[in-house]
Amino acid sequence: MHLDEETIQRLLHGELSPEMVRAPEEHLNACPTCSSLVEDARREEEEVFGLLAGLGHPVPPLTVAGIQARQVRTRASRFRWAAGIIAALGISTAAYASPGSPLPAWIDELLGRSEPEEEAGTPSTGQPGRESPGGGIAVAPGANFTVHFGSPKEGGTITVTLEEGSSELQVEAAVGQATFISDVGSLRVEPEGPTAEFLVKIPSNAPSVIIQLDGETVFSRQGEETTTDALQDDLGRWLIGIPVDGSRHPPGEPNGLGGQLS
Amino acid sequence: MKRPDSVFQEAFERTFEEQYPRIFGFLDRLSGETELAADISQETFVKLLRRGSMPESPSAWLLTVGLNLYRNATAKRSRRASLLSPSTARGSVSEREPAPDVSAELSEARERVRATLARLDDRDQRLLLLRVEGFSYREMAGALHLNEASVGTLLARAKQAFRAAYEEAGDAPR
Question: Is pLDDT above 50 for A123?
Fold first, then answer.
C-alpha cells in the first residue's frame, strides 16, 4: 500500500506527530515509488512557493504603541459619531432598554464596545470566516425572541452557534444582501439577493429563541434545550439549509428544514 | 498575581510579535498592495486589542478578521468603481499595476505569478499563500474553515492547479 497524498504533504510539512511519522518513513525506505513521489512533491513545492514568495514585500514597521494610538483615534471618532446620532434621533431610555431593541448594540458598536464583524470571524465559535457584505445586526433577545427569515430564491444556509458570555443575539449576512427589521421580541431578515448565507449567534443563556424560515420553525432554543432537525458539524454549529424556491424536504430529513417544531 | 489586563497585554504583545509579519505577508501577497495589506494588518490588531481578551486560536482569529476586512475593502472598492465607471468595476485589487520602482523584468515575472494566482479559486489562493507564510495545517483549517484532516490533499491540488495555470500563462501570447 503506497502513501496517499495527504500523508506525503504532511511528511513534507512536518505535520505528522512522532507516532504517526514512523510508519510512512519506514515505508519510504522500502518503496522507491513513494520516495520518488515525495521528491516530486518537494520539487513542485519549491518551485511553486519560490514563485509565490517573490510576490512579497518587506514588512512595514509597526509597534504595539502604534496600534494603541490607532485604537484611541478610532474610538474617539466612533464616539463623535455616536454622540451625533444619539442627539439627532433623541433616543428615549425606554427604546434603548426594550428587549429586542437594536439600539444598545448599535451604540456599543459605534463606541467600540463590541465587535460584531470581528466576532463573526471568531474561529473558536466555528463561524465561517467570511465577510458580512450584506450587513448584520445585534439585538438584546429579552425573555422571548423570534428571528424570521425569508427565503432567497436560490436557497442558502443559516448557520447557528451558541455564544458563551454574550448578551446579544447577532445575525449577519455572510453572503448576499439582506434587510433587517427589528421589533420588540422579534427580528425579520429579508434576503435581497438570489442566495444568502446567514450566521446567527445566540447567547447561550438566552431564555427563549426561535428561528423561523418562511413562517416555519426550524430551530428552537428554550433554556438549555435545543430542538431542531438541523445537522451539527464538527464544531457544533447547526447548519440549516434554505431550499431553492422554498421547496421543502419531508419532515425528519436532516437538512434542518424538517417538520414544524413545537 | 497579575491583573487580567496585564496578562492580556503581555499575550497581545507576544501575539503581535509572532503574527504581525505573517498576517501582513499573507495579505500583501493576496492583495498585491502593500499599503492596503499594512492598513488591514494594523486594523486587525486594533480589533484584537479592542476585544480585550485572547481568542482560543489567535492566529486563526487574526486571519479570519484580516480576510473579512480585506473582502470588505475590495467589495467597497468594487462598488465605488462601478459607480464611477462600469468598466473598472471588474478589476480586482490583485489586478492592479505593480509599483513603478520595480524593474521591468521583475515586474513581468510578478505579473505572471499574480495572473496565475488570480486564475485559482479563492480557497486555493489562500491555502498556498498561508502555507508560504508558514501557517500550520491547524491554523489554515481554522482560518479557512476546512477539515484539518484534508488540508494536505487540498494543498497538493492547489499546487498542481497553480503549476498548470502558470505554464498556461507562459504559453499564452503576450
Answer: no
Residues A118, B68: C-beta atoms closer than 8 Å: yes
Complex ipTM tops 0.85: no
Q: How many residues can be counted in chain B?
A: 174
Do the chains contact at B71 and A112, CB–CB below 8 Å? no
The pTM of the full predicted model, rounded to 2 decimals, is: 0.56
Contact B68 A8 (CB under 8 A): no
B65 closest CB neighbour out of A49, A66, A121: A121
